[in-house]
Amino acid sequence: MDKAAEDELTMGQVPGFPSGFAAVSQESPWSDPAANDLPGGVFQLGHSVDLSRSNIDVSGFVMQSLPDGSEYFIAEDFGPWHWSCCWSGPGPTYHVIEGNVLSDNPEELLQFQSRRSCCCLSADLDVVSLHADEVFANADDHAACCFKVNTRVSVRDEERFRVLGSLAGACCSCLASEHRIVDGDRHVVGKVAHWSSGAHIEFPPGALTSEKAGILAAALVADLRRR
User: Fold this and answer.
1) Which residues are registered as beta bridge partners of 112?
2) pLDDT tens-digit readout, 138-147
3) 35, 93, 146, 147: least CB-packed within 10 angstroms?
4) Which superkingdom does the taxonomy of this entry point to (predicted)?
5) Alpha-carbon torsion 168, 215, 99, 63, what sign?
6) Contact 114/224 with Cβ under 8 angstroms?
7) Domain extent at residue 186
8) First-residue to last-residue Cα distance in the chain
9) Among candidates 16, 38, 62, 39, which has minimal Cα distance to 164?
């Protein structure tokens, strides 16, 4: 192996990352129907997405899939106590909606349901397919520091990725923070960039739709933590 290849491999590995969980499949491109493993096949994301804070009356994010240009709306459902850190049990819910959220019949595709056992802990997010009434993915953070991110992404009870980085940029309007998406072989395979009004996600090559939804849940966990 030449020096450039060794340097690239070193940069792509994260020392101390736990081994023994599933690596992402690299077989199917995003547009391959085989990559969409969710019931109904109506929710599909490209190789990356942009999330922008909504400027309409409905709180949430506008999410654009790239390169296909599909748009979804992620509506936030926060109770009175959820805007503070003093809550436990079931928490805020994010609703993924296709079409115009202000129309009479927007179609809700997924829900991201949060919960936490104590007000001093990070929230977990379960990803629910409304077509099958199935919890198929989960994101939960294991960081020991309030300003660190170590979020485990699982699909159907099997860990696929970790999202690692710093939370500082997501909490400040003048900074941005970039989190690494790491697979089971300890390689960096994607990234999540956060700033105060949105985020950009670059998914691992060949990731399944369920895996992308789990990574999106990890980005929303970071959004919850910065509130």
Assistant:
1) 94, 127
2) 999 887 566 7
3) 146
4) Eukaryota
5) positive
6) yes
7) 23-36+44-225
8) 46
9) 16
